[in-house]
Amino acid sequence: MPFRSIVMTSAFVVLSLVPGAALAESRLALVIGNSAYRSATPLPNPVRDAKAVADLLQSAGFEVVPAADLTQSQMLSTIRDFALRVASRGQDTIAVVYYAGHGLQVGGENFLVPVDATIKNQTEVALQAVRFDDLMNMLEGVPTKARIVILDACRNNPFEDMKKTVGRGLAMVNAPVGSVVAYSTSPGTEAEDGEGANSPFTSAFIDAARQPGMPVEQIFKNVRLAVHNATSGRQTPWEVVSLTTNFSFCPARTESAPATAATPAATPVSLPTDKDPARTSDNPATRSAYWNRVLRSLGPQKAYERVVLEDRVDAYREYLVLYGNTPNAARLRIIVDRRQEMVAWYTAVTVNSPASYRFFLTRYGASDMAITARGLLNRATTRSLLASTDPAALGIPGCDCTVAPSRRADPKAAPRSGRPARNAARPSGPEIEVVEPVPVGPRPIGIGRGGAGVGGGVVIGPGRGPGPDPGGGVTGPGRGPGPGPGGGVTGPGRGPVTAPGGGGRPGGQTGGRTPTQPR
Questions:
Q1: pTM score of the predicted model
Q2: Does residue 345 form part of some domain?
């Protein structure tokens, strides 16, 4: 199949089991590199990065579809054709999508920028760019073993007229079940294009991914530490993993397949195989005690490497408690502060209520997302006013719009459970740490197995959806959203009880997205 110059700012990779040295499943990869931007700053490296990643994946048994310098129409058709090709291979297929180029966030959503974009303001982004959610939805709709999306697309915003009105970097996302989403740098920060032939992220990824038998989770941890060190802490890659199967890019060597002297790779970093349940406890005090004990035993330098590998805010905090006067502490303070701000932003746009935006602006009024937050606050306030207005006042006679249609049709119907209407699509991906609290009204009861709130942000456990607890508490691995009150405890209820102003769409109410639906 001839080379097609197609695709844009995002990278997706769908992966699957590699049993032993044999690759039984079908492996497909779409590799996009956008460098030759016509109305934005050209980028030297993305096309070279895409070529290097394509070579790596081909050597790992992938059938690669390369695409370079794509317009919007080319990007959309290329992604559609790739999804159709993946679907034709069956559910044992591993799909990989890699994107290098410009990317940006608007209103908490991420967009990949084609080379023909001539964007003047944020209202034009959705018309001229490719929505990351659309790309993910297209891939998610195809049965596969795994999907891995890699975005080396967090370079600086190339459109001068927009730099003062949209946030830096990409917004935080969740990964659908069976997926990995990897960023070349942390949410809300910018990646470097690099001085060499490839970007710092792509260079580190190629070195780490060629390690035989290396699990994909370990690969991205090694990439994070390598890029963090190579950029003196200015760039720290981030990923969210929600795979349901093991995967390695390159299968483990067997006795019949000895190592060759082909291309030397970087020495892999190994994480301790610590099975202590305190490490992932729902109780933040238990986790803090665990990290304090572990990091104290390692000493400053090894403890620093360990927390960067793990990329957990509670681990970073304990490092700062123990080694706050060391030279590396300043780097970690920057990471922690920005991560908490980005999780607060993620929570605000997910809850999508006037209260959530007001709280964000109270805490982060000087943020680069503040202008967008004020605009979304105005929109959410208008929506809430319309929803609470008597239909007769709007000139809609004869309609009791405050009663759900199903209840009007059957007056004897059982009461609704209160579960938000969109909960069916709730992913059960990995945890997203430290969520800033969001005020959502008077003390609702949380759901699932929520833990006690103790201040310092909300930790979302590895359950099926986040449950923001506005007082700085912690929600455990519950089964759905249960916005809690200030400083409180999310209880062990079985069904969600959302508070007024908490977004979501319980019953027939129109409003924001449910907290379990990341944007």
A1: 0.71
A2: no
